[in-house]
Specification:
Blueprint: E1 2-15, H1 19-28, E2 34-37, E3 54-55, H2 64-74, H3 81-89, H4 91-100, E4 107-109, E5 117-119, E6 121-122, E7 132-133, H5 139-152, E8 157-160, E9 163-170, E10 182-189, E11 194-205, H6 226-234, E12 238-239, E13 244-251, H7 263-267, E14 271-273, H8 293-307, E15 312-315, H9 321-327, H10 329-337, E16 347-356, E17 359-361, E18 373-375, E19 380-381, H11 393-411, H12 435-452, H13 459-482, H14 487-508, E20 534-535
Helix pairs in contact: 1-5, 1-11, 2-3, 6-14, 9-10, 12-13, 12-14, 13-14
The structure holds flavin-adenine dinucleotide (FAD) and succinic acid (SIN).
């Protein structure tokens, strides 16, 4: 990697091109020049793989009150109710905007009104009503298509693909006194390896989650927690990182990498069965296979440990083949490629890391503790999800908070900073033989997190993980300062930081709540209801 003196100046710098970053960019574009920096191609994001859909109240049988109640119940006492109410109530106008921007949701015939159509509503775990708007089983792909097409038409938006944000530039890092303020970011252009400076008075972290911290995940390769790591290094608080959501049904197949089988499949009647073919969820929750995700994932984990099997089954074979193929065309086609006809065969599934409920601390307008820095989407911890996210609430949170952040940033606009920001500094040693160290450390962290900080934790496992992560961090730091950095090394640094934050938050919470389950303290402790685990790097 080389240092470049190239400086890009924009009014708004958006890091990430998933739903949160694109929605923000579209809102900001009428008011200034917007750069979207994204580390792969523009569509590559967690958003692109979303299947189930977006939860929002749109039917007469439903109400805001019910959606709020379901969200609070899933969140196990840790949601911020005012945030939940704001996000739930602001869903419908944002959905209308998505449709105006070109998003096509699935529709169905209105019963008893031939020729009339209405939005088709899916159901997922923990929802008391049908309220999931979807585009068959490829909702995220359709969102990215629509938002990217709209962004391409805005001359004020410039997209920088294959550009990896490395670190935020803040007044504190420059040694300036006064409240900490974000001035931009150092970004590596992957094609040349040059690190360039992007300066802006408003910087938006929309970098998504951190599934790649775990060995098994539903997330694509981009999900390395870079945003949380950058914000933490810059001095922002990070909260509730112990609440990693494991999705119960990731396809179990030696050749399938991270393929999700949507919860909507259970919403349409699929049931979980043991390796031997017996239903088992009735012993765990009255909602059986549609219980909240934390309960289903733990029940599967316990069933796999009991039987010694390496997966359980999801069974939708009792539904008509035509219905399955029409409602879940992507899941049907993909499974068929792996030799499974889901209209006839049960689907082997396992839980996998899926969603980061904690993140950079923000209010509902996406404001972080650092002036001029916003965090929106999965990277942020607004208080909506508490200890466990209700299915399909994340896409909703992303559009509501992106809208609010854009409105807030506009009201706070400041002239662009006129400071001299030094170019990026890095080590200059180059030794390709050592690259094996980077890939080894990647594997080690991901396996360690899966084995010791997974669905079921213990004090001892957490302590072990903590000790090991600190050693690995030291190795990575040494490597980082000596060698010319690569994208792999930068992402390794992120997953190591995020792994440390997850372990430290998990060690701080002396109870089990929502997604954090510790065998040594298996019950919730009322003293910890409403308490977040907070971490902040000392300057
Ligand atoms: P993302 O969509 O992940 O976008 C992050 C962006 O940041 C990407 O463009 C990435 O390349 C970029 N980026 C990251 N780091 C850097 C860096 N250092 N420099 C530059 N760019 C960077 N939620 C629901 O509500 N409903 C669903 O049905 C649903 N289904 C899901 C299915 C799957 C398989 C997965 C993985 C998740 C699902 N989720 C679902 C969760 C939801 O998709 C995500 O929480 C949401 O899309 C996050 O949006 P985002 O914009 O915050 O981040
Ligand atoms: C799914 O389709 O099962 C994923 C939904 C979500 O994560 O919200």
């Amino acid at each position: 990697m080389t240092t470049s003196n190239r400086i890009h100046r924009f009014d708004y710098l958006v890091l990430g091109s998933g739903i949160a970053g694109l929605f923000f960019a579209l809102k900001a574009a009428p008011h200034g020049r917007v750069a979207i920096v994204t580390k792969k191609t523009s569509a590559e994001s967690n958003t692109n793989y979303a299947q189930g859909g977006i939860a929002s109240v749109t039917s007469k049988e439903d109400s805001f009150e019910l959606h709020v109640r379901d969200t609070l119940t899933a969140g196990a006492g840790l949601c911020r109710e005012a945030v939940v109410r704001a996000i739930v109530q602001e869903g419908p106008p944002r959905i209308a905007e998505l449709i105006e921007l070109g998003m096509k949701f699935s529709e169905r015939e209105v019963p008893a009104a031939a020729g009339c159509r209405e939005l088709d509503l899916g159901k997922e775990g923990g929802h008391s009503k049908r309220r999931i708007l979807h585009a068959k089983d490829v909702t995220g792909r359709e969102i990215e298509r629509a938002l990217l097409a709209a962004a391409e038409q805005r001359v004020c938006i410039e997209m920088f693909e294959n550009h990896l944000a490395i670190d935020l530039v803040t007044t504190q890092k420059l040694g300036l006194t006064g409240p900490n303020r974000c001035l931009g970011a150092y970004v590596m252009a992957k094609a040349t390896g040059a690190v360039e400076l992007f300066a802006a008075s408003t910087v938006v972290l929309a970098t998504g989650g951190c599934g790649k911290v775990y060995l098994y995940t539903t997330n694509p390769d981009i999900a390395t927690g870079d945003g949380v790591a950058m914000a933490y290094r810059a001095g922002a608080s990070v909260a509730n990182m112990e609440f990693i959501q494991f999705h119960p049904t990731c396809l179990y197949h030696p050749k399938a990498k991270s393929f999700l089988v949507s919860e909507a499949v259970r919403g349409e009647g699929a049931v979980l069965r043991t390796y031997e073919g017996k239903e088992f969820m009735d012993a765990h929750h009255p909602l059986k296979s549609l219980a909240p995700r934390d309960i289903v994932a733990r029940a599967i984990d316990s069933e796999m440990k009991r039987s010694g099997s390496d997966h359980v089954y999801l069974d939708i074979t009792h539904k008509p083949a035509r219905f399955i193929m029409n409602r879940f065309p992507n899941i049907y086609r993909t499974c068929l490629e792996y030799g499974l006809d889901i209209t006839k065969d049960m689907i082997p599934v396992v839980p996998a890391a899926h969603y980061q409920c904690g993140g950079v601390v923000t209010n509902v307008d996406g404001e972080t503790e650092i002036g001029g820095l916003y965090a929106i989407g999965e990277v942020a911890c607004t208080g909506l999800h508490g200890a466990n996210r209700l299915a399909s609430n994340s896409l909703l949170e992303a559009i509501v908070c992106a809208h609010r952040a854009a409105r807030h940033a506009l009201s706070q606009r400041q002239p662009p900073p006129q400071l001299t920001i030094p170019p990026w500094q890095s080590g200059d040693a180059h030794n390709p033989d050592e690259l094996v160290v980077v890939s080894h450390l990647w594997d080690e962290i991901r396996r360690l997190m899966w084995d010791y900080v997974g669905i079921v934790r213990t004090h001892k496992r957490l302590q072990r993980a903590h000790k090991r992560i600190l050693n690995l961090q030291a190795e990575i730091q040494e490597y980082y300062w000596d060698f010319i950095v690569t994208a792999d090394l930068l992402e390794l640094r992120s997953i190591a930081t995020v792994a440390e934050l997850i372990v430290r938050c998990a060690m701080m919470r002396p109870e089990s709540r929502g997604l954090h389950y510790n065998l040594d303290c298996p019950e919730p402790d009322s003293a910890w209801a409403q308490r977040d685990t907070l971490l902040r790097k000392e300057p």
